[in-house]
Write a structure and sequence with these properties.
Elements lengths: L1 H19 L29 E10 L9 H20 L4 H27 L2 E8 L4 E6 L10 E5 L2 E4 L1
Antiparallel strand pairs: 1-2, 1-4, 2-3, 4-5
Helix pairs in contact: 2-3
Length: about 160
């Protein structure tokens, strides 16, 4: 009984496997349409938001500030915030001083980075899209993008593809 059941299952499996899929290259469009040959329609894998970088221009921000302004202001704000947080959580006098010092260091680092972001230069990246359009995107960092590289424009930002 087991052998008959196994033989019947094997016959059904082979019969269904023959009907399940078509062989590569023998699709609905006839022969020569498989294995990468798209029958003359060679641009089916185009990316609607992709293109080649044709030009990169650095744009000066025109903003300037003394070199330590961000760090000093951030340190002051951080120290006051650290002291106030420790004061409201019931810390001792020593804890208040430690919290103020830690806040000053954290605030100075944050203020310095904010100043760099505000006063840094940007880049105008010109991209010739696959559909022939030309798009210019302004962004702060290049992220490895160079002229003649294939990129994608996503949400107003150029990224490597």
């Amino acid at each position: 009984m087991k052998i008959q059941l196994i033989a019947a299952a094997a016959v059904v499996t082979v019969a269904l496997a023959g009907c399940a899929t078509t062989s590569p290259g023998y699709g609905s469009s006839g022969y020569n349409n498989g294995y990468g040959n798209s029958g003359g329609n060679y641009n089916t894998n185009r990316c609607a938001d992709c293109g080649i970088v044709t030009r990169i221009n650095q744009v000066a921000s025109g903003r300037s500030a003394p070199s330590a302004t961000g760090a000093v202001l951030g340190g002051i704000v951080g120290a006051v915030a650290g002291h106030e947080i420790s004061d409201h959580t019931g810390g001792s006098r020593g804890n208040k001083n430690i919290a103020a010092a830690a806040g000053a260091v954290g605030g100075a680092l944050a203020g310095n980075q904010i100043q760099k972001n505000v006063t840094s230069d940007t880049f105008d990246i010109t991209v010739r899209m696959d559909d022939g359009r030309t798009v210019v995107v302004n962004q702060r960092d290049l992220g490895g993008i160079r002229e003649n590289t294939y990129v994608r424009v996503v949400n107003g930002k150029v990224i490597l593809r």
